[in-house]
Design a protein that fits this description.
Structural class: alpha+beta
Radius of gyration: 31 Å
Distance between the termini: 49 Å
Number of helices: 25
Strand order of the largest sheet: 20-15-14-23-24-35-34-31
Number of strands: 55
Largest sheet: 8 strands, mixed
Oligomer: single chain
Strand content: 15-25%
Shape: globular
C-alpha cells in the first residue's frame, strides 16, 4: 500500500464548492489542482476531470473528455467526498422505511424531546429521514436481579442476560414489508429495542427483507451496536437513507474509467479520519470526513479551517480526538467521528449593527449571492471587511465574479455598502461620541468575528483541562490566513503554522492517511480480575477480525492495532473511550494494558477527581486496526541569499491606521528568511496576513511559520466604543462559560456532571446580572435577586475569602434543590466587592419528606429540604464542612422528613461550585488587569444598557402596531391553574420611553400546596418572554428588566409568604406565567403549559424525568409535536438506558394523535408514555393542565388537556389526578397522556396558507462538534 512505482497516485477531496486534487507523479514530484465541484457545461464529474487534466498535462497525451479514462497509469485513488453530507443537508437521500418495536413509531420524531434553539417559538427540528414506519410486535427485555414479575427463559449475549417477552411475528412483518415495496420504497432501516446486545430478531427481519427484494437493508445491530436506541436509530436511518446515494455516486464515478477502476486501489475517507475500500463505504460513516492531523515540535495543535459559511476547529496532540456521537444537519449519528467543532462564522458571515452592537453571523451570504464584492447583489460579509481594509487584493484574484463570472472582485460595491452602514452607525452614536470612519467600522467587524471564533477554541481546550496558550495554531482553508495572527494573539498562542498545501490540505491529508478497519461490540463486564480472561478472549477475537480484513486488502507487516475500552464508574453516565497506550499490562491487568490507570489518570485530567472506591464498568470493546501507507512528502525548497523581495507594496489598515505593506508571492520566497509584518503573502489558494509585531518565515518543508508578537496595547478609555462593546460582551460570556466548564468537570453528581442542570453568572457591584451562561430559562435573572439580597443582608460584613450559600425563596431562590453559591470579587485598594460571581446547581437530594426533594404534596417549605438564607459556606478561605453538614441534615427534625440522603455528593458539588466561582473570580481579575477596573465596570454598564435598548425598541414597535390596531396601549390576559387559581396580568406600555408596567394585581392568593412561585420565578419567566419577543441574540442581563416595572401583590401565588411550599411553582406555575404574558401580547397559542414531573423510587433507587408535550402554533407555523417548551428543555432518558438501570419497562412512547388544537396553524400533539413496573416503588406525579386546556389564539382551538392513568395489575384503571404520590406493585402500569398545544387562527382560513419555504439545513443547523453538543445538552435541561 506504499507508493506505487512508475504510476500516478491521486488524493482528491470533493467539497461542496471546490474539488481539490493532490497528485504524485511517477518521478515523485507533486502537483495540486483546484476545480469547481459542479460545472455541468464542461464536465460530468469533478474528480474524474481532475485526474484527466493531470494525466493529459504530465504525459503530453490526449485523454478525451467523452471517453473513459485509461487506468493503466494510475496506481491508487483516495477520495473524500461530501456527497453523503450534502444529501443529508438537502434531504435528498433514498426513500426509506423504518421498522421499529411496537409502541415506538414516533421515537425518532420525539428524539431527546429538547428543542434546538431555546428562544425560537417556532420549534424548527429537522424532519426524520424515513417516509413510512412499520411497528413490529416483538419485545426483548433485560433480565434484572430482584425483578418481581414472572420470568421467561434467559438468553445470553454480550454480558447481558435477556428475556424474550414477545416473539417476532414474521408473517405479519412480511405482509407489511410487501406493502412498503409496492409503494416503491426499497431501502429499509431496522431498529429493535436492545438489539445492540441481542440481534436475532433484527437478523431475521433483515434476511426476510433482502429475500423480498429490498436493495438496501441496514440493521442497527450491525451499523452501530451501542446501547441507546435513539442515536442508534438515527444512525441506522442515515445509513439506509444515504448508502444507496453513495453507491449511485460510485457507479457514476467508476463509469468514467476504463474497466470501472477494477484494477485500481480506490479508498474513501470516513468520518473517523481513516480510509476504507470503495465497496465498504457506507452512509453512516461517510458524513463529514475529517482533516489530517500534524504535530509541531512536540506541541499540541489547534486546527483552524476557516471557510465561506463556517469555521472548523479541532485539536491534535499525538492522537486523534474522537467523539462517538455527534449531530450533523440535525441528525445525531452514533459512530466514531473526529471531534471537529463547526461554528457559524466564516468569510461569508453577514455583518449587522443591532441596538448599538456590532454583530457577525450566524447568517451567511452562502455561495450565491455571496459577499457584496462578488457582484451578485449580496450583503456585507467578513470577506468584504477584509477587502475594505486592503487585506485582500483584487488584482491577485481570478476574474470569476459577477453575473457572467468574468469580472474581478468589486471594491466599489463593498465600499458602497460600508458607507451606507457607517452612516447608520454614526446616526446611532450620540453627538458626544466620536464618529467612526468606514475603516474603523470594517476593522470593528473583523475584531468581533475573531472574538466569536476564539470562544469555541477556548471551550475545546479548557473543557478537557488544557491550556489554550500552549498550542500551535495550524491554519488552513481559504479565509483563515487573514485572521490567524489576530486569533493566535487573542488566545495567547505564540506560533501560527500554515502548511504549503493549506489551500488543498484535506486532499493532501488523504494521501498521508491510514487505511482503517474498526470493530466494536457491546460489553457488560466489570473491570476486575475475574473478568480479565473473558475480556482478553473477546479483545483477541476483535484484533483477529481487524488483522484478517487488512491482510485481505494487501497489508502484511505494516498493520497496527489499538484496543479501546469504553469505561465509566458504576452508577454514572460519564463514559470515556480509553486506550492503554503508555500503560503496559502487568499481573493485575488484562493483557491489552493497564486500563484502570489509563482511565483514572484521564478522568482526573478531565474532571479534576476520581472515585477510588467505585467499580469501573466496561460498556464497549473497540479495536482500531491501521494499515500504514508509508507515503512521504517531497519538497525542494529554494535556499535564499539575501532578503525576500516584495512584488509590490500596498496600503493596509490596522489598529494604527494605514501602513505600508509588502506583498510577497509564496512560491518565490526563499527558505529561512524572515518577513516582518505588516506583510501579505499570496498563494494560488489563499492570502496570509502578517500583522504588525509578527514575523513570518518559510521552513525547509516549504511551509510558513509565523511568530506572533504581543499587541502594542492601546489604552481603552471609559467612554463607549461600540466595537469594544461587542468584544466585552463575548468576554463576559466567556467567563461565565468557563466557570460552567470547571463546575461540570469537578462536580460528582449525575444532575450537574451529566444532566448539566446548572448556571454560572457574573454580576456587577450592585448585584445586577452582567452575563449568564448557559441559559436555563428558569434560572434567567433569578440569581440576580439572590445576589442583591446578600448585598442588602450582609453589606460590609462580606470579606475577601468569604463564599455565601443560599436557596431560600425569599432570598431570590427558585426551589430548594437549586443551591446558589456566591463569591464576592475584591480588588486591592477597594473596600467593597467590585464584582460578584455565582453558580446555581440542582442537587439531587437535600432532604425533606420524599427522596429527590421534590414532593408533589408538600404544604410548607420545611417539608422540601434544607434551607439556607445567607449561609457562609467558606469563611476566610476555609470550607465550613461541619456547619454545612449540620444544616443539610437539619430537615430530619421535622415530622416525616429526612436530612439529605446523599451528603457525599452535596459536599463534593458544593466544593465544585466554589471552584467554579474561584475560576470566575480569577478571570474577572485578569480582565481588570488588562483594561483597568474603571473600564471593565464601564463596559459592564454599557452591556446592560444594550440589552435595555433592545427591549425598549421591541416595546416601542409593539406599541406602534397596537396603537394602529386598537388605539390602546394597554393589553391584558388571564389564565388558570388546575385548582382554579387565577394568574392575571395587565400591561401598560409607554411608547415614547419604550417602557412598560407589568401588573399582576388580581392574581389569586397563595395556595395550600406547592404551586406557589417566588418572585424570582416570575422575573425569570418575564426575561424569557422578552428575549423571545425581541427575536434576536441580546445579552441576557439586568438591562432586560430596566424598562419594566413589575407589580406583584404580596401574599399571592406569585409572591407567597416566607414558609410557603414552592417546589411546584418552579416547574409548573412558571409555565403559566409565560402563557399569560404571550396571551397578552398575542405572540402565539399556549404550549402544553406543564413539565409533567414524574418520579419513582424505593430505598435503593430514585428516578426523575420531565416529559414533552405539544408546542403552541403561531403566525406562520404549526406547533411542534412531542417537544419541551418555554421554561424547560430537559432531555429524556433513552429507553434502553431507562430499562437497563431501573425496574421498569417502557411499553409505549409515541405521539398522542389529535391532541393539538386545530386552526389555520395547528398546535403540536402531546405524547403517550406507558411505564410498566417490575418491582414495588412509590410513584409521584406533579403536573398541570389536567383540567384547564392550553388556549388557542385568534380563533384557533384549545389543545387537549393531559391525563394521568394508573392501570393496576388486577385490571382496575384509576385517574390519578394532577398531583399525587402512590405506591405501585409489580405489574402496575402508569400511563401518561401529555397536553397538546393550542391552534392559531381559524381553521377555515387554513386553505389560504402560504407554502412554507424549505431551508437548506446547514442554514438552520450549521454548528457541530463536542463544544456544540455541550451547549445543546446544557440548554436541554
Amino acid at each position: 500500500m506504499a507508493e506505487t512505482k512508475g504510476k500516478f497516485d491521486f488524493a482528491i477531496d470533493r467539497g461542496g464548492t471546490f474539488t481539490d486534487v493532490f497528485a504524485r507523479l511517477p518521478d515523485g514530484q507533486e502537483r495540486v489542482l483546484k476545480l469547481l465541484s459542479r460545472d455541468p457545461q464542461n464536465y460530468k464529474d469533478a474528480p474524474t476531470e481532475g485526474i484527466r487534466r493531470v494525466l493529459e498535462k504530465e504525459t503530453g497525451r490526449a485523454f478525451p473528455r467523452d471517453q473513459p479514462v485509461d487506468t493503466s497509469l494510475i496506481g491508487w485513488i483516495r477520495m473524500g467526498t461530501t456527497v453523503a453530507t450534502n444529501a443529508l443537508l438537502e434531504r435528498e437521500g433514498e426513500r426509506t422505511a423504518l421498522l421499529v418495536t411496537l409502541g415506538f413509531k414516533d421515537l425518532l420524531h420525539i428524539g431527546t424531546q429538547a428543542r434546538p434553539k431555546l428562544f425560537d417559538l417556532e420549534v424548527a427540528v429537522p424532519e426524520v429521514l424515513y417516509e413510512e414506519v412499520i411497528e413490529v410486535d416483538e419485545r426483548v427485555v433485560l433480565r434484572q436481579d430482584g425483578c418481581q414479575l414472572a420470568r421467561k427463559d434467559p438468553k445470553r449475549s454480550t454480558g447481558d442476560s435477556l428475556e424474550v417477552w414477545r416473539e417476532l411475528d414474521l408473517e405479519r412483518v412480511e405482509k407489511d414489508l410487501r406493502g412498503v415495496l409496492s409503494r416503491g420504497i426499497t431501502s429499509l432501516a431496522v431498529l429493535l429495542l436492545h438489539s445492540y446486545t441481542w440481534s436475532d430478531h433484527e437478523k431475521a427481519v433483515g434476511a426476510l427483507a433482502r429475500r423480498l427484494g429490498f436493495t438496501q437493508v441496514s440493521l442497527s445491530s450491525e451499523v452501530m451496536p451501542m446501547v441507546r436506541a435513539v442515536p442508534r436509530g438515527y444512525t441506522v436511518c442515515a445509513d439506509a437513507y444515504l448508502t444507496p446515494k453513495i453507491h449511485q455516486y460510485l457507479k457514476g464515478f467508476t463509469s468514467g474509467f476504463k474497466g470501472g477502476l477494477k484494477d485500481v486501489d480506490v479508498l474513501f475517507m470516513q468520518s473517523d479520519g481513516g480510509l476504507t475500500p470503495m465497496e465498504q463505504f457506507c452512509g453512516s460513516r461517510a458524513v463529514l470526513s475529517g482533516p489530517a492531523g500534524a504535530k509541531w515540535k512536540k506541541k499540541p495543535v489547534i486546527g483552524f479551517d476557516m471557510g465561506g459559511t463556517s469555521t472548523d476547529v479541532s485539536r491534535y496532540a499525538g492522537q486523534y480526538e474522537h467523539v462517538f456521537e455527534a449531530t450533523t444537519a440535525g441528525v445525531t449519528l452514533q459512530a466514531p467521528q473526529l471531534d471537529i467543532n463547526t461554528v457559524a462564522a466564516g468569510g461569508g458571515s453577514r455583518l449587522f449593527f443591532r441596538s448599538g452592537m456590532f454583530v457577525v453571523g450566524p447568517e451567511s451570504a452562502g455561495a450565491h449571492p455571496g459577499p457584496a464584492c462578488y457582484r451578485k447583489g449580496g450583503p456585507l460579509t467578513v470577506t468584504d471587511a477584509n477587502l475594505a481594509l486592503g487585506r485582500l487584493l483584487p488584482s491577485f484574484f481570478p476574474k470569476i465574479f459577477g453575473p457572467g463570472e468574468n469580472e474581478p472582485l468589486s471594491l466599489e460595491e463593498t465600499m458602497k455598502h460600508f458607507h451606507h452602514l457607517t452612516r447608520e452607525i454614526n446616526l446611532f452614536l450620540s453627538s458626544n461620541q466620536s464618529q467612526m470612519s468606514v475603516e474603523e467600522v470594517a476593522m470593528g467587524f473583523i475584531r468581533v468575528a475573531n472574538e466569536a471564533m476564539c470562544r469555541p477554541i477556548r471551550a475545546l481546550t479548557q473543557a478537557k483541562g488544557h491550556d489554550t496558550s500552549q498550542h500551535v495554531l495550524a491554519c488552513f482553508g481559504g479565509a483563515g490566513g487573514q485572521h490567524a495572527c489576530a486569533i493566535a494573539r487573542a488566545l495567547g498562542m505564540k506560533t501560527v503554522f500554515i502548511h504549503k498545501y493549506s489551500g488543498v490540505l484535506s486532499a493532501y491529508g488523504l494521501a498521508l492517511a491510514d487505511v482503517v478497519e474498526e470493530v466494536q461490540e457491546p460489553c457488560s463486564l466489570q473491570y476486575e480480575q475475574h473478568s480479565f480472561s473473558e475480556l482478553d478472549r473477546r479483545v483477541e477475537q476483535l484484533i483477529k477480525r481487524c488483522h484478517d480484513t487488512l491482510c485481505a486488502r494487501g497489508f502484511t507487516r505494516s498493520i497496527t492495532t489499538e484496543v479501546f475500552l469504553h469505561l465509566r464508574y458504576k452508577g454514572t453516565d460519564c463514559a470515556l473511550m480509553v486506550t492503554a497506550a503508555g500503560y503496559p499490562s502487568n499481573a493485575q491487568t488484562c493483557l491489552a494494558g493497564d486500563f484502570r490507570s489509563a482511565f483514572t489518570k484521564r478522568y482526573l485530567k478531565e474532571f479534576g477527581f476520581t472515585i477510588p472506591d467505585r467499580a469501573i464498568m466496561v460498556d464497549d470493546i473497540r479495536v482500531r486496526g491501521c494499515g500504514k501507507s508509508g507515503i512521504k512528502s517531497v519538497y525542494n525548497t529554494k535556499m535564499g541569499h539575501g532578503q525576500a523581495k516584495p512584488v509590490t507594496m500596498t496600503k493596509c489598515y490596522f489598529e494604527e491606521g494605514y501602513l505600508d505593506t509588502g506583498v510577497y508571492l509564496w512560491e518565490e520566497l526563499p527558505c529561512g528568511h524572515s518577513i516582518q509584518g505588516p506583510a501579505i503573502i499570496i498563494d494560488k489558494n489563499s492570502t496570509i496576513l502578517v500583522e504588525p509585531c509578527c514575523e513570518a518565515r518559510l521552513t525547509e518543508g516549504g511551509d510558513v511559520s509565523m511568530t506572533v508578537g504581543s499587541d502594542p496595547h492601546c489604552a481603552l478609555g471609559t467612554e463607549l466604543n461600540t466595537v469594544q462593546l461587542s468584544i466585552f460582551s463575548h468576554r463576559f460570556m466567556s467567563i461565565a462559560e468557563q466557570m460552567g466548564r470547571v463546575l461540570q468537570r469537578t462536580s460528582i453528581s449525575t444532575n450537574i456532571k451529566e444532566r448539566l442542570d446548572f448556571s454560572c453568572a457574573v454580576f456587577g457591584p450592585d448585584g445586577g446580572l452582567v452575563s449568564n451562561a448557559p441559559h436555563i430559562p428558569v434560572h434567567l435573572g433569578a440569581m440576580q435577586e439572590t445576589v442583591q439580597y446578600q448585598i442588602r443582608s450582609l453589606g460590609n460584613k462580606l470579606k475577601e475569602g468569604d463564599v455565601i450559600l443560599s436557596n431560600h425563596p425569599c432570598a431570590g431562590g427558585s426551589h430548594l434543590p437549586d443551591l446558589t453559591v456566591i463569591t464576592p470579587v475584591f480588588r486591592k485598594g477597594v473596600s467593597s466587592p467590585v464584582f460578584f460571581v455565582a453558580s446555581r446547581g440542582h442537587h439531587a437530594d437535600i432532604g425533606g419528606i420524599t427522596p429527590g426533594s421534590m414532593p408533589p404534596h408538600s404544604t410548607s417549605l420545611q417539608q422540601e429540604g434544607a434551607v439556607f438564607t445567607s449561609f457562609k459556606l467558606v469563611t476566610g478561605g476555609i470550607f465550613q464542612e461541619e456547619a454545612v453538614t449540620e444544616a443539610l441534615m437539619a430537615p430530619a427534625q421535622y415530622p416525616d422528613s429526612s436530612g439529605t440522603r446523599n451528603l457525599h455528593d452535596n459536599l463534593s458539588d458544593l466544593r465544585a461550585q466554589v471552584a467554579a466561582n474561584q475560576r470566575g473570580s480569577q478571570l474577572v481579575g485578569e480582565l481588570i488587569d488588562s483594561y483597568g477596573l474603571a473600564v471593565v465596570q464601564a463596559y459592564m454598564g454599557y452591556i446592560q444598557s444594550n440589552a435595555e435598548l433592545a427591549v425598549r425598541d421591541m416595546l416601542r414597535d409593539f406599541a406602534r402596531r397596537r396603537q394602529q390596531q386598537t388605539g390602546s396601549l394597554a393589553v391584558e390576559s388571564e389564565d388558570f391553574m388546575d385548582d382554579g387559581t387565577t394568574i392575571r396580568l395587565r400591561v401598560q406600555i409607554n411608547e415614547e420611553e419604550g417602557s412598560a408596567v407589568f401588573d399582576f394585581t388580581g392574581t389569586g392568593t397563595e395556595v395550600w400546596g406547592n404551586c406557589n412561585a417566588p418572585r424570582a420565578i416570575t422575573l425569570s419567566a418575564l426575561i424569557y418572554c422578552l428575549r423571545c419577543m425581541v427575536g434576536q441574540d441580546i445579552p441576557l442581563n439586568q438591562g432586560c428588566l430596566a424598562p419594566i416595572k413589575v407589580i406583584i401583590p404580596p401574599g399571592s401565588i406569585l409572591q407567597p409568604s416566607q414558609n410557603a411550599a414552592v417546589v411546584g411553582g418552579n416547574v409548573l406555575t412558571s409555565q403559566r406565567v409565560v402563557d399569560v404574558i404571550f396571551r397578552a401580547f398575542e405572540v402565539c397559542a399556549a404550549s402544553q403549559g406543564c413539565m409533567n414531573n414524574i418520579s419513582f423510587g424505593s430505598e435503593s433507587i430514585g428516578y426523575y424525568e420531565t416529559v414533552a408535550g405539544g408546542a403552541g402554533a403561531g403566525p406562520g407555523w404549526n406547533g411542534r409535536s412531542g417537544v419541551h417548551s418555554h421554561m424547560t428543555n430537559t432531555r429524556i432518558t433513552d429507553p434502553e438506558i431507562l430499562e437497563k438501570r431501573y425496574p421498569v419497562i417502557l411499553e409505549q412512547f409515541s405521539l398522542r394523535p389529535s391532541s393539538g388544537g386545530a386552526g389555520k396553524y395547528s398546535g403540536g400533539d402531546g405524547v403517550m408514555r406507558k411505564l410498566l413496573f417490575r418491582n414495588t416503588v412509590v410513584l409521584s406525579v406533579l403536573t398541570e393542565r389536567r383540567s384547564t386546556r392550553p388556549y388557542g389564539l385568534l380563533g384557533g382551538e384549545d389543545g387537549a388537556a393531559g391525563l394521568n392513568l394508573l392501570h393496576r395489575a388486577d385490571g382496575r384503571v384509576l385517574n390519578l389526578g394532577a398531583k399525587t404520590s402512590v405506591s405501585l406493585q409489580p405489574g402496575d402500569m402508569f400511563c401518561l397522556y401529555t397536553p397538546g398545544g393550542g391552534g392559531y387562527g381559524r381553521e377555515e382560513d387554513a386553505n389560504g396558507r402560504p407554502q412554507m419555504k424549505r431551508r437548506r439545513l446547514n442554514e438552520s443547523f450549521p454548528e457541530r462538534g463536542s463544544v456544540f453538543e455541550y451547549r445543546m445538552a446544557q440548554e436541554g435541561v
